[in-house]
Write a structure and sequence with these properties.
Blueprint: E1 3-7, H1 11-26, E2 38-43, H2 45-54, E3 63-68, E4 78-79, H3 83-91, E5 97-109, E6 114-119, E7 122-127, E8 132-138, E9 141-154, H4 162-165, E10 178-185, E11 198-200, E12 206-209, E13 216-220, E14 223-225, E15 230-245, H5 252-261
Parallel strand pairs: 1-2, 2-3, 3-4, 3-15
Antiparallel strand pairs: 5-6, 5-15, 7-9, 7-13, 8-9, 8-12, 9-10, 10-11, 12-15, 13-14
The structure holds NADP nicotinamide-adenine-dinucleotide phosphate.
C-alpha cells in the first residue's frame, strides 16, 4: 500500500508529519506522492480539501485519512497523538472504507464551451457589486427568478460548512442529495424565490442561467474559478465519490454535536 502525505506548515503539523514519516517507514508503508493508494492529510478541513483537489484525477482509486492538528474537523478523524495507532491499523489493512457523494458542476461559456469540475463541499455563484439576476431551473423547468447576492449548491459533506452559515440543513453525508441555499435574496413582485433551502434528488440537475458580468464570482470549495464569459451553470450529484478510511470510530452526529453544540455526551 502506497501512502501520500499532504499537510499545512504549522509547527505542530510539521512535528506530526515527521513522526508519521518515521512510522510509515517502520511499518514498511512506502511513500508515493504521485500515485498513492491512501492520502493522509495533516492539518484542518482546509488542508484536507486542498489535498482532495490535488488527487481529483485519481478520485476513484484513492482513499483519504484526515489527522487534525488544530480543532476537531469534519474531514479529520484522528488526533495528532493517535497516529501510532492509525498507522498500525493502516498497515494491517483493517480500515473500514466509506464513500460519500461529490458535486458535479458544469460551467457553460457564452461561446458554447463547457468546463466540468468536482466539488467536495460546495460551489457558489455570486456577484461582487451588483445583485445577481438569474433564472433557476430544476431539470428543464423554470423554478424561480432569483435576484440577490448569489446561490450556494452544496454536497452533504459541505452541509456543515458555508451552506450551514447560509441557513442550510445539516445533512448526513451518506445521503445522495444536493442542497441549494440562497445568499441574501431579494423578494418582491418581480423576483420571487422559495426563500428556503432546497434538498434535491441526485439525478436532478439544478441549472442557473444569467448574463455574463465583469463582477461575477464563481467558487468551488471556496477557491475562485475563472468566470469570464460564463452564462450558465448546472449542478448535480456526481457519479464519482470520495472514499475515506474510517477505522470504525466515526459517528457523524457526535461530530456535529462536538463542533457546534459542545454539550457533554450522554446515552439512552
Ligand atoms: P477558509 O475560509 O480558510 O476556512 C473556512 C472554515 O470552514 C475553516 O474553519 C474550515 O475548517 C471550515 N470547513 C471547511 N470545510 C468544512 C466542512 N465540510 N464542515 C465544517 N467546516 C468546514 O477556507 P478553507 O479552509 O479553504 O475551506 C473552504 C471552505 O470554506 C469552503 O468550501 C466553504 O464551505 C467555507 N466557507 C465558509 C464561509 C462561511 O461559512 N461564511 C464563507 C466562505 C467559505 P478548518 O479550520 O478545520 O480548516
Amino acid at each position: 500500500m502506497k501512502v501520500a502525505i499532504a499537510h499545512n506548515n504549522l509547527p505542530k503539523t510539521l512535528t506530526v508529519v515527521s513522526r508519521l514519516r518515521k512510522l510509515l517507514h517502520q511499518y514498511r508503508l512506502p511513500i508515493d506522492q504521485k500515485y498513492p493508494d491512501v492520502v493522509i492529510t495533516v492539518g484542518g478541513d482546509g488542508t484536507f480539501i486542498s489535498a482532495v483537489h490535488r488527487y481529483l484525477d485519481q478520485i476513484d482509486s484513492v482513499r483519504f485519512i484526515g489527522v487534525h492538528t488544530g480543532h476537531l474537523g469534519f474531514y479529520t478523524d484522528w488526533r495528532n497523538f493517535d497516529i501510532d495507532k492509525m498507522v498500525q491499523v493502516l498497515a494491517r489493512e483493517q480500515a473500514e472504507t466509506v464513500d460519500y457523494p461529490l458535486l458535479e458542476v458544469k460551467f457553460y461559456q457564452a461561446d458554447g464551451s463547457i468546463e466540468t469540475r468536482l466539488a467536495v463541499n460546495e460551489s457558489t455563484v455570486k456577484r461582487m457589486s451588483q445583485t445577481l439576476e438569474a433564472d433557476v431551473f430544476i431539470e428543464r423547468t423554470l423554478f424561480e427568478n432569483f435576484r440577490g447576492d448569489g446561490l450556494c449548491i452544496a454536497t452533504p459533506l459541505g452541509s456543515t460548512a458555508y451552506s450551514k452559515s447560509l441557513g442550510g440543513a445539516v445533512i448526513q453525508p451518506d445521503l445522495r442529495v444536493l442542497q441549494m441555499t440562497e445568499i441574501a435574496s431579494i423578494n418582491n413582485q418581480v423576483f420571487r424565490t422559495l426563500a428556503a433551502p432546497m434538498v434535491i434528488a441526485p439525478e436532478e440537475w439544478i441549472t442557473v442561467k444569467f448574463k455574463p458580468a465583469q463582477d461575477l464570482v464563481l467558487t468551488i470549495d471556496g477557491k475562485l474559478v475563472p468566470a469570464a464569459g460564463v452564462n450558465q451553470i448546472s449542478y448535480r450529484i456526481s457519479t464519482h465519490r470520495i472514499q475515506f478510511d474510517r477505522f470504525g470510530h466515526h459517528h457523524f452526529w457526535t461530530r456535529v454535536q462536538d463542533s457546534f453544540i459542545g454539550m457533554p455526551h450522554a446515552s439512552i
